[in-house]
Amino acid sequence: MPRPLLQRFSFRPLLVIAFLLIAALLGAASLRALFALEALTAQSRDYAARALALSGAAQSLRERSVSMERSARQSVVLDDRVLRQRFRDEARDAAAIVARLAQEDIAAAREGPWRAHHDTLLDLLAGPLDTALEREHQLAQEFREIEAINTAIAMQVQQAIQQRNQSLQDRLETSRQHLAQQVIAAIVLAVLMALAFGVWFTRPLKKLENAIVGLGENRLDQVIAIHGPADLALVGERLNWLRLRLSELDADKSRFLRHISHELKTPLASLREGVSLLEDGVAGPLSQDQREIAQILRHNTGALQGQIEDLLRFNTAAFEARQLRRQSVDLLQLIEAQVEAQRLQWRARDLTVQVSGAPLRMEVDPEKIGTALANLLSNAIRYSPLKGTIEVALSQQPGRVQIDIRDQGAGVAPVDRERIFEPFYRGERQPEGGVRGSGIGLSIVHEYIAAHGGRIDLLPEEAGTHFRIEFPHAYKA
Asked: According to the model, what pLDDT value does residue 392 have?
């Protein structure tokens, strides 16, 4: 079955593509904001130029009207042709200004009245000299009317400028809101894309981490399948190949141990039987020296058989540690059950066993955790002095569940602390008068705890021994 398109690429180009997509999104939002700002700036400059032109036109119209009035009235009184021509020039310029303002939809309604007064002024300029005074009064009246029209036009210009400024402000506010929405939407979308890519990228990495942890904890029955970029999927395939290879090696080791143990047991049994026959005098009476040699042979063959059985027991425990049967268990009840099961042992030494903690349920294999607790408790009983105290405390800490087991024995020698959990390693401090241990009890405890994803540590203490078991909350019921 062909892989999806994105899974055909390796992790690095996909990461670059993700960054480019996010950068393109933010860049597009920035460019859009820049273009909108440029458009608003150009529109603002155009409005400012038009407002300046309108204000100048209104001011120029007022000045032209004043100059027209002065020229007209003087020309009537003095009957001067030069002054009349000056009036006509000023009137032509003023009419042009009124026409331009009318094109701006400002003085369109007042252009007609203004031109009517303008025509009247032209008519009043011509006439006999004896009517000059009367025509001069009429000119003054007409110019007052024109001044009123000019004032109205100036007010319209101011209103038009204010309206355009308000329109520009409204557009600026609308554009600002749109830009803010677009920028916020782009940021949110970029964050969502970053989260999506982050989850998509980190999920296979997390699976790889879990797969490596699983291999380290010898959980070889879980198939490793990584779905994601091509290089990570390839690493997953290599890890799965490694898992299968480790499974084969582990199976070969188990078969070898079973085979060699079986091969050793048969001649060892014959050897023990022969030594027993020699000790019983079947082959003839033995001298004192010969009997001592036979006793040494019997002791060492027994020790060898015990070591072979311990080896098989540890190999069986290590194999069973990978086959957990989890169920919801109250750890406090499980601890109390193990303490009660060994009541005869600790009471025979007049010990006090104190169990503390609140009920706490977790998904564990009760048989294997019970065996681990039993081995730790048995060690504590074995190494505790007469009338000593053993403390077993169950507690819940941030992110983990914790079991502490303390005794008042001789403790572990500093040279033994690093190797205390190694198979068949026996420390230098042994209980007085006790049988020397096989060295696999703590190894089995370590295997069972690690199979549950937990850990066991030997903590430093001034006196006695302090073991601590920690389980992650991921296994909490």
From this structure: 92
Distance CA 213, CA 219 (A): 9
Looking at residue 133, its amino acid is: L
* pTM of this prediction exceeds 0.85: no
Mean pLDDT calculated for residue range 3-23: 64
User: Does pLDDT of 103 surpass 50?
Assistant: yes
Per residue in 361-408, pLDDT (tens digit) is 988 888 888 988 998 998 889 888 888 999 999 998 888 899 999 998
How many other CB atoms sit within 10 Å of the CB of residue 359?
9
Using pLDDT thresholds of 50, 70 and 90, give the confidence band for residue 227.
confident
Angle subtended at Cα 258 by Cα 257 and Cα 261, rounded to the nearest 5 degrees:
80
Q: Is 276 exposed, middle or buried (0-12, 13-18, 19+ CB in 10 A)?
A: middle
Q: What is the pLDDT of residue 317?
A: 63
What residues form DSSP beta bridges with 469?
A: 403, 456
Percent over 90 (pLDDT), the chain: 8
